[in-house]
Amino acid sequence: MPFSGHTEFFAERSQRDRVVMMLATEELRVALATTHLPLLAVPGAITEQSLHEVITILDHDLKTKFGIAQPQIYVCGLNPHAGEGGHMGREELDVIIPALTALRARGIALTGPLPADTLFQPKYLQHADAVLAMYHDQGLPVLKYQGFGRAGEYHARLTFYPYLGGSRYRAGTGRHRHRRRGQFQNGVKSRH
Name one GO biological process term (predicted). Predict the structure, then answer.
């Protein structure tokens, strides 16, 4: 298969090296540090450089497309309990924390790395403009549970907005729901 997912397809078609996938409802935005990868490949794909790129793009688009003057981005750890100081993996200590430290020095408001199993609670999310999950199935199940049928997908750095969510089973039946599109567009400024 030439593309691991639609995000990679859109990136290639728009001639972008890096596109950041984010799903959003009116209450929650979850972006991904990696997209459609097997779990075994995720740790190797998370580098200081990749986190710099993803977070810089996410911060930029939260400011320019979502109209958030100083976005607060909460960042998940990769390992259970965000690594517990290296006892459950070193990616937080060796990669994620150094990347976040450098980005904070550039003025990006970041919290984390935080354990994903406790981050998605209202007491934390009320302060977050977006959550950055390290991989697809770390953050998206929470968002889809919370907002299934209301979530929209946004790809930071694309030159167009693909509208996803239509079903091939509904194609041509006249039964497509446009509710999600309108709800999602309420949170995104026009690119024009």
Answer: pyridoxal phosphate biosynthetic process
Tokens for 174?
Answer: 């006249």
Q: Is the dihedral of CA 31, 165, 125, 141 positive or negative?
A: negative
Query: Three-class SS of residue 140?
Result: helix
- Cβ pair 116, 138 in contact under 8 A: yes
- pTM (predicted TM-score): 0.81
* Cβ proximity of 65 and 101 under 8 Å: no
Quote the CA–CA distance of 14 and 120 in Å, as a whole number. Answer: 32
Is the Cα dihedral 126, 127, 130, 136 positive or negative?
negative
H or E stretch covering 67: none
Domains of the chain: 6-167+174-185 (3.40.718.10)
Task: Give the separation between CA 130 and CA 30, rounded to whole angstroms.
Answer: 6
Distance CA 179, CA 167 (A): 14
